[in-house]
Write a structure and sequence with these properties.
561 residues, single chain, 5-stranded antiparallel beta sheet, Leucine-rich repeat, LRR (right-handed beta-alpha superhelix), alpha/beta, 21% helix, 22% strand
Amino acid sequence: MNEILDTEIDTSDFLYPSVQSDSGDFEAITPVDTSGATSLTFVVSIKGKEYFMKRLKPELKDNQAYYNLYHKEFDLGQRLDSPYIVKYYDLVEDDQSVYILCERVCGATLDQKVKVAPEWFTTRRNLDRMFCQLLDALEHMHNSHVVHTDLKPQNLMLTRINNDVKVIDLGFAFADDYTLSAGCTPGYAAPELQQGSSDTLGVCTDIYGIGKLLEYIHTETDRGLPKVYRRIMHKCLHEEQSKRFQSTEEVRKAILHRKHVLRNLSISSTILGVLVLAAYIFFNTSTGVGFAGTILWSMRKVSYDVDKYQIFYKYYANDSSKCMVVGGRVSVDAAGEDDGDNIKIRSYIIRPNGDTSRVVAIADSAFFRGKNFTSLYIPDGVETIGFRAFEYCKKITVINLPPSVREVGDYAFGQINSLRTLHLPDSLEKIPIGMAHNAHQLTRVAIPPKVRVLPLDVFASCIALKEVILPPHLERIERGVFWECRKLPQITLPATMKYIGEFSFYHCDNLKHVYLHAAEPPQMCNAFSKSMKVTIHVPKESATAYKANIDWKDMTIIGDL
């Protein structure tokens, strides 16, 4: 369980100012335990929406240097627009102090997360996702000519829903158009920062910060980092800038690099010969010799291919008609030379020996960050789509999965901001985590009839979503599934519904009616924002049970179904 940021703390040292801004009056000001050496942080409410307010400490209000740093931080924050960087909304001044209004992030800082859930950092997939999001944030900063310079566990947050990265605190950030000297945090500052010269600050300064974050995780968790991350850590932390990674993309490639067992048959021919011989002896005395022969035959199918659009495939085949895509990245610049900006996956691949193999799977991260693609064609016959396979292909508008698809990896179609149409085949029985989160233009979706669970964050921040058709046997809606689906006016939940998770419908500002056909009240855990005015329509004979149930008694219940 994540450590929640807004924990109760001693409020005696906090002042509660009455502040007005163009955004509206601040209400319900509450201190939170994220304050730094120069600032106090509050949670404030403006017209029912919560924000972070960062306030210069009273004893520093007359210090011109800190005053200027606040203005610099706000200016730099306003330049940035990334889902993985906290958003800056307003800067306010009064007689007492200066205030910065920021996005409210519900979650835990990296150091809090390590303390309460160190096992989370032992999973390679969790690390890959977290650091790739951090790299996205830093890449955006660097493209905007901003260097963070102060990456540390206290300045990196993981959201309560989905553990998404949020980079916070740009107080020490550096940009060429500001002559203000950059500060630093002892123990985390790059050597060039400690030397005090702004001339040497740049991308490699933040690369060093990545190394310090990895070092912190490695030392604070019992099992430490996987070997690949230890190698990345050591290179990031090199004293000489020229010997570190030179870009966020270089770090990303090192993280996403995968070694495949069957990459080169010749390297391990001796070992394979021994294994095959052993298998032959074993199965000859038990289940027959046919199996050992199959091993040899499948091993010989290892091969590579490159199509004309520079989409790289690496695959193996278990028989003469199937081809499993186990690796591959897209060369975005070269893709689509002869066919516009389409991603067109071929149904078959011709191997160098002339054999034809059917493509049945798309690799993990195979088309990750394919920014130039506007359309996607997946042929019938593809059965599996890998983890993050099309994440961040931001220009794709239509995804139509063929009936052959049986499995889709987590976040496969996440962060596709232009996605308008998503067709899921009836063959799909399991919806992946975060499948279409942040699809900002998706307006309608129908869940296949065999699906029984909607997992974490499936349609979170699909801000244009207006219609959702749920399957007749759906049983569970997990945490944050419809988080921030602001245009969703109503939803119908089937009679089989058993559980509605935390924050499932938070910030669904337009949601007025929920038609819940379950005779027994499902377990419901803080699924709706307190400010939402939602009417829950339930079966007539069940209205009394809903009104008496501890999870539902505070909701507006009408028995009219």
